Amino acid sequence: FKGGDTCEYLLSSGRFLGEKVWQPHSCMMHKYKNSEAKNCLIDKHVVFIGDSRIRQLFYSFIKLINPQVKEEGIKHGNIPFEDKSASIKVDFLWYPEVNGSMRQRIKSWTEGSVAKPHIIVVGAATWSIKIHNGSNEALAQYKINITSIAPLLEKLAISSDVYWVLQDPVYEDMLSESRKMITNEKIDAYNEAAVRILNSSSRNSKAKVKVFSVSKLIAQETIMKSADGLHLPESSRDTNAMILMNVYCNKIMKPIDGSCCQPQPPLTLIQKIAFCFFTLSIFGYLIISLIHRNNYRKNKTCTDLESGEEKKPAISTPNVSTLEMLLHCFCKLGLIMTYFYLCDRANLFMKENKFYTHASFFIPIVYILVLGVFYTENTKETKVLNREQTDEWKGWMQLVILIYHISGASTFLPVYMHIRVLVAAYLFQTGYGHFSYFWIKGDFGVYRLCQVLFRLNFLVVVLCIVMDRPYQFYYFVPLVTVWFMIIYATLAVWPQIVQKKANGNCLWHFGLLLKLICLLICIYFLSYSQGAFEKIFSFWPLSKCFELNGNVYEWWFRWKLDRYVVFHGMLFAFIYLALQKHQMISEGKGDPLFSNRVSNVLLFISIVSFLTYSIWASSCKNKTECNELHPSVSVVQILAFILIRNIPGYVRSVYSSFFAWFGKISLELFICQYHIWLAADTKGILVLIPGYPMFNVLVSTFIFVCVAHEISQITNDLAQIVVPKDNSTLLKRLLCIAGFFSGLHFFSAMQDPLRH
């Protein structure tokens, strides 16, 4: 952390990721769309003053507002542009030299009641070098002229944004004979003079002219692609225009993935209350710990004065009380949430944009697969999808998803489609696991319901409070929660059909299948009736949970994307448990799941199906079309994987303890990555150690995994306290939780007007 404004970094430093993606130092740059640019610049007047290079920047800038603009203006004259729909005026004023004419134009804006432009972009020098043949006298005159203009620009900078664009280097080998006198040595001398003179008399930070020096760095990398050695290629001009847009608009539009030039958001009322709560928890835990320590010291082994022998105290060390455990959990959680806030809300650590390369995705994938195979152990049981195997499955999928997110691989469609299958596989496990539990145990009690809901939602609720984000922002947890409730409702509603009841009468199996068919019909109806879906989730209080940006469209899209896979998981569990009950499969150690012939045929079909899906996913050309097919076909690869993993007896009887360890904290890993591994709500990458990308990833990953593991333990500990088995105590806790959410809603309603 070097302090200062990230705007300074955006205007002065950065590097290229690949050939075309510019990465400012320490912050993230948003890619503005036309609609966003218009919203930012509505009723604004922007002026570009200078030579042909500034004219290039002018055209790139107005193309961000209207991409249809063509560069057809007078080369050596003024060029106006106006967007009447948004009342935006952008003018280019032809002043190729820093002289009296330029001074007079700038002075006119400082006098009287003339309307001042909101943004002024100035720059010129190459014409002075060219006309005066690079003479020293011309440089001396340039210094005099810029000295006379500087106070006027500083005066304008009090109420307007004023940028002085330093001169880009040239590619001397490509310059025409009439431009040979324009050398990089001369350009450096002119730039040095401008930097030294500008702001030299200004002591007021608000009256500072912003020096746009980043264009020099961009030109150093791209000027060799110039058509004439003097003017930048179009991609470089567009990058400069986008930087200019970020400098001005980020503080107005506040894009999530545009951290440059954004002030730290003020603390909300709910965040302040949360801060006070965690602070009190820390102090409360320290006080109780000190009291217990003093009591322990008093009761320590002491010497009997009469016999001279040591004797043990009559009172033993008391057990840890529920209050102390509760405060201990909140104490740790408070420290962890402070780290979350510092990483992704305070402007303390740097953030950078993602940049995808095949190497950044596939090399880590190969590395973790090798590690996973290395840590192979025997399973405790050899059933299909046993606990170790499902933990392993969750673990390697979660690691692949993490690598997918940090590498920005969503831009590569084949990888995106395969990752969609992994997300679907999580939901498949949700359907399989919860159906199996309810079918075998028949436990539809409130305790089980509350335990699952608490473990799924605790971390997300805390993050919604601390990070000031809506519940739907962490889309996967609402998705899993709603599907769990759907599974619970499907099986718990009358008539309750469980395995014990069905064993007595086979007709109950048909009753359960009828329930599943009804569920499938409901899913099908809601997926093709967006209006009905939105009406259901637009009712209060559901709307408070599932709205994002004022509507539930994002929630409908996420739900629809994997709408059938939970049903597939439930159906698979039903068929598997029926086969197991009738002893139609062999799950002994080392035994194939079916007879050799059947096993070989199924294994062959599974491998072909698995590869066929991968070939189809890799040939996808359009994300929208592939997303439409995905809900119906994703189950093919999931079932193929399950059969490949379970049909051979040896493969079923071993698992990777490395992947299984990560699988046990997969939910925490998925949620925590939003703020302490990635940054800007997953849009960028957190930079704890700038300048060393690999070392930074190692350090941030180590902290991230440790935090996720710790939160998993905290959640488990709190679940035992908050959700007790005793029904009367549980009812009291539920009333307290209802009171908590009512208070949360009340404070949220209080702060909403302030936010707007």
UniProtKB/TrEMBL annotation:
Family annotation (InterPro entries): Cas1_AcylTrans_dom (IPR012419), NXPE4_C (IPR057106)
Name under which the protein is recorded: N-acetylneuraminate (7)9-O-acetyltransferase
UniProt domain Cas1p 10 TM acyl transferase: residue ranges: 253-734
UniProt keyword terms in alphabetical order: Acyltransferase, Glycoprotein, Golgi apparatus, Membrane, Transferase, Transmembrane, Transmembrane helix
Source species: Vidua chalybeata (Village indigobird)
Compartment annotation: Golgi apparatus membrane
One GO BP: carbohydrate metabolic process
Underlying gene: Casd1
Reactions catalysed: CMP-N-acetyl-beta-neuraminate + acetyl-CoA = CMP-N-acetyl-7-O-acetyl-beta-neuraminate + CoA; CMP-N-acetyl-beta-neuraminate + acetyl-CoA = CMP-N-acetyl-9-O-acetyl-beta-neuraminate + CoA; a ganglioside GD3 (d18:1(4E)) + acetyl-CoA = a ganglioside Ac-O-7-GD3(d18:1(4E)) + CoA
Domain NXPE C-terminal: 22-72
Gene Ontology molecular function, alphabetical: N-acetylneuraminate 9-O-acetyltransferase activity
